[in-house]
Amino acid sequence: MNEQAPAIVFRDVWKSYPSYNHITGGIKSFLFHLPKAIQELRQRRTALEGINFEIPRGTKFGFVGRNGAGKSTTLGLIAGVLSPDRGEINVNGRVSPLLELGAGFHPEMTGRENIMLNGVLLGLTKAEVLEYQDEIIEFSELGEFIEQPVRTYSSGMYAKLGFAVVSILKPDILLLDEILSVGDEAFKRKCAAKFEEFLSDRNVTIVLVSHALESVSQVCEQAAWIENKQVRMVGPAADVVKEYRTSVNPKVVVEETIEASVKKPALFLDRNIVSALPHPEKQRCIYLIRHGLSVGNEKKLATATTKDPLSPAGRKQAIAAGAWLKKNGISFSRCYVSQWRRAQETAKLFLPDGEFIEDTRLGEMNLGEDSTRSFSGEKETLPSAYDHIFPGGESRRQLFERCASWLDEMTDTMLPGENVLAVTHAGPIECLTQYISGVDPSFLPVFYPKNASVTKFVYYDSQNLFGSRQGWMLEIFSFVPYQMESLA
C-alpha cells in the first residue's frame, strides 16, 4: 500500500444500470411486452456522469445530495461491489463498508464462523482474523450465542456482531451510509466511543453519506455535493453543506408576524383545485397529528420533557379526534409516533388498534436545560434559535434536517393510494410544512398547529405543482376535527 497516495481517486467515472421494468413483472409481463422489453434491455439508466474527486489518506469525507443523485452508487463503486462503465477508480487501502450491518453473514453458520468468513471477505488472512477474534466476540457481547447459527439471532444481536466485525478489524477506509448506532443504550455508547476512535485516527479514512447535514458538518473535514449525477462542488464540509442547504431551502419573504401566524385558522387547499389535479384516486397522503394538550402545555412551558403526559383535557381532545377519524373512514398502511410520552398517549387514544412505529426523527426539539422555560420569555429568542444549541439540547436546524430525512424516506417508499399517519409535535409539523413549501426554516414559526389538530400533505407524482417541494402539497393545516362535523 502506497502511504503517500490518496486513499480514493475517481477520474471521469460513469455508471449506468440496465432497465428491467418488464422483466421484474414476471415472465408473463415480459412476453406480453416483448418488443418493448427487448428495447428496454438495450437501454441503460445513467447514475453517474463523469465524476471526479480525490480523498486524501486519513481525511473524513462526506457526500451530500438529494435522493437518487448518485451518492450510494458512489459508495458501491468505492467498496468494489459495483464496476464503472468507464473511467478510472483507484482505492488505496482495505475497505470496510459499514452500510448494512451483517451483510454477507451465512444464516446456517455460527457467529464465530461468520467472523472468519467476513474477515476473509474484507481482505484479511485467516491468521489475522484469529488474532482479533476474541476481541470481536467480547465487543459484540454475544457470550455463548457466538456458537449458535446466526439465523437464531435477534436483529439487535445480528447488528452487534456486524458492527463488532467491521470496527475491530481496523479498516484503512471506512464507508458509512448514515452514522450507525445499534443495540441497547450501553452498546450504543460503545459504538459511539469506537466511532470517536476512528475520527481521531489519522490512518483511517472515513467516507460518509448522510442526509443529516449537521452530522456531515461536524464529522467531516471535506465534502462533495452530488447533483443530477455529477459532482457540483467539492471543498470544506461546512462550505459544501451551506451551499447545498441554500439550494434546497430557498429563501421566501414572509410578511406575517409570528403572532399573526399562530392566530391564523386552519388552512384548506381549494377543493376545486384538488379535484382538477391528476389521479386523485392514487394520491399518497400523510396525516400529521399534533399531540393533545399536555400538562406542560397547560403550564405554558416551552417544551417540558419527554415524560410530559397528556392532561385530562388533552386526553379528551385525542379521543374526540379519533372519533372523527373513524366517522370519516380514514385508514392507514403505516403509523408513526415520536418517542415523547404525550405523543404516544395521543396515538393510543386517537387510533387504539394502530400498530405504531416509534421514530425519533419525529421528536420535537429538546431545549435541554431550557425545557422548563415559559412562553413569556420565548418570543424574543425563537427567531435566533435556528442555529443556537441550547444547553443539553439541540438546535432547530438539527430537528429540521431529521424531519426532512423522514419525509424524503416517505417520498421514496410510499405507494400510490397509501395513507401514512404520524403523531408528533408542533416543531416537527412546522419543519415539515416549511420543507415542502420552500419557506426558509429560520423563520420561526411560520406554521403553528393547534393541539390534536390534523395537517395533511398530498403527493402528486413529483409534478412540483405550485412550487411545492418534491411533489408534496399542503392540503390541510391545523384542522381541529372535534370542532367540525366533517371535512366536507
What overall form do the CA principal axes indicate? Answer: globular
Rg, alpha carbons: 25 Å
Order of strands, main sheet, comes to: 10-16-15-11-14-12-13
Strand count: 16
Question: Mean pLDDT across all residues, rounded?
Answer: 77
Helical segment count: 16
Termini separation (Å)? 69 Å
- Tell me the β content: 15-25%
Q: Pairing-aware structural class of the strands and helices?
A: alpha/beta
Low-confidence stretches: 250-280, 375-391, 462-469, 484-488
- Share of helix among residues? 25-40%
Describe the structure.
This protein is an alpha/beta fold and 488 residues long. 35% of the residues lie in helices and 20% in strands. The protein has 16 helices and 16 strands. It has helices at residues 27-32, 34-41, 71-79, 111-121, 126-140, 155-168, 185-200, 213-219, 237-248, 258-263, 271-276, 295-298, 312-327, 341-350, 396-413, 426-437, and strands at residues 8-18, 44-55, 60-64, 86-91, 95-98, 173-177, 205-209, 222-227, 230-236, 267-268, 284-290, 334-337, 356-358, 419-424, 454-459, 472-479. It has a seven-stranded mixed sheet. Strand 12, helix 14 (341-350) and strand 13 (356-358) form a beta-alpha-beta unit. The radius of gyration is 25 Å and the shape is globular. It starts with 7 loop residues before the first strand and ends in a 9-residue tail after the last strand. The model is unreliable at 250-280, 375-391, 462-469 and 484-488 (pLDDT under 50).
